[in-house]
Amino acid sequence: MSGTITLVNPATGRAFREIARAGLAEVDDAIAAAVTAQRAWAALAPAARADALRAFARVVEAHVDELAALEVENSGHPIGSARWEASHVAQVLNYYAGAPERLIGQQIPVAGGLDVTFHEPYGVVGIIVPWNFPMTIASWGFAPALAAGNAVVLKPAELTPLTAIRLGELALDAGLPEGLFQVVTGSGSVVGQRFVSHPDVRKVVFTGSTEVGTDVAAGCARMLKPVTLELGGKSANIVFADADLERAAASAPGSVFDNAGQDCCARSRILVERSVYDRFLALLEPAVRAWRVGDPASPDTDMGPLISAAHRDTVAGFLDGADVAFRGAAPDGEGFWFAPTVVLASPDDRIAREEVFGPVVAVLPFDDEADAIRLANDTIYGLAGSLWTENLGRAVRVARGVKSGVLSINSHSSVRYATPFGGMKASGLGRELGPDAAEHFTETKNVFFAT
Ligand code: TAP
Questions:
Q1: Gap between the Cα atoms of 267 and 250, Å rounded
Q2: Is 232's C-beta closer than 6 angstroms to any atom of ligand 1?
Q3: How many C-beta neighbours within 10 Å does residue 302 have?
Q4: pLDDT digits (tens, 9 = 90+) for 126-150
Q5: Is 130 in the pocket of ligand 1 (CB under 6 A)?
Q6: What is the pLDDT of residues 12-40, one digit of tens each?
Q7: With pLDDT > 90 as the criterion, what percentage of the chain qualifies?
Q8: Beta pairing, strands 14-20 & 107-110
Q9: Closest Cα to atom 26, ligand 1: which residue?
């Protein structure tokens, strides 16, 4: 081990736990154990792998309260959200428990014999996750990867490793073999980079910033390793004049201030048709002021603190010179609190272009449908987005015109375990979740039998 990591409760600012920090030797040991475990796992009958994943799901479901409490303390997530996240992990496991028996190859008509394809697991998959949704994002990788017959080594973010560590223990309690699903806590530059450089890690899944993701992808390219990237976002919430403005305004705070804005899908730009711009802002203000920021352990809390003091400084820096329209409330004192903030912006302002990853939203007017699409696409990112209109034709045209991986009409829903999720442009490569994700953890083998 190379020392320890000190965990800080973001709602109090106080250190509460030390955990071991792995060095290269520990990562290499974990990868070696995963290689061995994977061979036996892939040799199991598909139904046996399915049963094991269902057992893992049941154990997670039985520990939802415990996992949620860990996330409240380690990440400052409101307890209601944290419970949803833990239950979601169980649902993702259950969903992909159906995959081992459905990874069906093809029989292809060819001359002179029989030709069939197989979906072969890669072997060992390295998964690197960020601090904003530690449990859920990890499960989007490990559940389909395991279902497809791979072993997994998971590196949580240094700031928020507790739920990942507990999931690793619960996997063993559920009967998953030793070595099959391991959690290694340590820095990205050591543990994460080792996933990239180690020849026995045959696929990497990375969720995090576009900057680090680009570096991880370049390293994987040098090793000829496939990589899935889930990166940053600057998603637009587009409100047309014909929309139900009350609903659009009432739901807008949740779409960007959820998880204190530390959400890759945060609708951090609200584009409003000019003719209803003033009215929309008048409706938005009370909704923002009513957003309850405070103790994450309370069931009445909508939003907890930011993850760290350093991150709060970064978020605050985005308000330098910004035209703040109004702000909600936040507690004073200990903890990394930041009040929900609404800024009036122009397309070239920094606040309208860069990912803040905090509870700050930029509001911009637009003139017509074409202008709305142009503005929505005026970003390097392309992860999510919402549009509000009562006009079906417009909804279809705008949804097709916006370059984002995940869009939602008259709602802000982005994540469902049964539907594909991922970004375009600088928001990522590949898709997670949905019916095809287990296949993404396999490579196709073609076998020809001469007759
Ligand atoms: P990053 O700083 O990129 O860190 C993400 C993970 O990568 C952490 O586990 C980190 O380890 C590790 N890492 C850091 N440097 C590395 C390197 N050189 N090689 C390999 N791994 C390395 O991001 P973050 O600040 O934790 O998360 C915020 C970003 O993630 C935002 O941009 C957000 O939009 C994005 N995000 C995207 C999504 C999806 S699904 N698209 C979901 C959530 C978040 P350490 O713990 O040591 O830093």
A1: 14
A2: yes
A3: 19
A4: 999 999 999 999 999 999 999 999 9
A5: yes
A6: 999 999 999 999 999 999 999 999 999 99
A7: 99
A8: unpaired
A9: 130
Average pLDDT, rounded, for the chain: 98
* 262 Cβ closer than 6 Å to some ligand 1 atom: no
| The predicted structure's pLDDT at residue 1 | 75
63 Cα to the center of ligand 1, angstroms: 26
pLDDT at 201: 98
Q: How far is the CA of 377 from the centre of ligand 1 (A)?
A: 24
CB 268 near ligand 1, within 6 Å:
no
| Nearest Cα residue to atom 37 of ligand 1 | 231
pLDDT of residue 2 exceeding 90: no
pLDDT, tens digit, for every residue of 249-260? Answer: 999 999 999 999
Point out the ligand 1 atom lying closest to the alpha carbon of residue 140.
40
Pocket lining: 186 vs ligand 1, CB cutoff 6 Å: no
Identity (one letter) of the amino acid at 152? V
Cα(149) to centroid(ligand 1), Å: 26
Residue that has been written with the tokens 């320890």 in this structure: 4
What's the confidence (pLDDT) of residue 385? 98
Report whether pLDDT(68) > 90: yes
What are the start-end ranges of the E strands in 306-368?
323-327, 341-344, 360-366
Separation of CA 7 and ligand 1 centre (Å) = 17
3 state SS for 109-174: EECCEEEEEEEEECCEEEEECCCCCHHHHHHHHHHHHHHCCCEEEEECCCCCCHHHHHHHHHHHHC
Q: Which residue among 73, 85, 230, 355 is the active-site one?
A: 230
Catalytic: 230? yes
Q: Which atom of ligand 1 is nearest to the CA of 230?
A: 41
Round to whole Å and give the CA distance between 205 and 188.
13
DSSP structural state of residue 303:
B
| Most ligand 1 atoms within 8 A of CB, residue of 19, 137, 264 to mutate | 264
ipTM given for this complex: 0.95
Distance CA 363, CA 252 (A): 11
Size (the chain), residues: 451
- Give 335-389 pLDDT, tens digit per residue: 999 999 999 999 999 999 999 999 999 999 999 999 999 999 999 999 999 999 9
Bridging pattern class, strands 269-273 and 236-239 = parallel
Closest alpha carbon to 148 in 83, 101, 80, 196: 101
This prediction's pTM:
0.97
Q: How many Å apart are CA 265 and CA 263, to the nearest integer? A: 5
> Does ligand 1 have an atom closer than 6 angstroms to the CB of 423?
yes
- Determine whether the shortest distance from the Cβ of 310 to ligand 1 is under 6 A: no
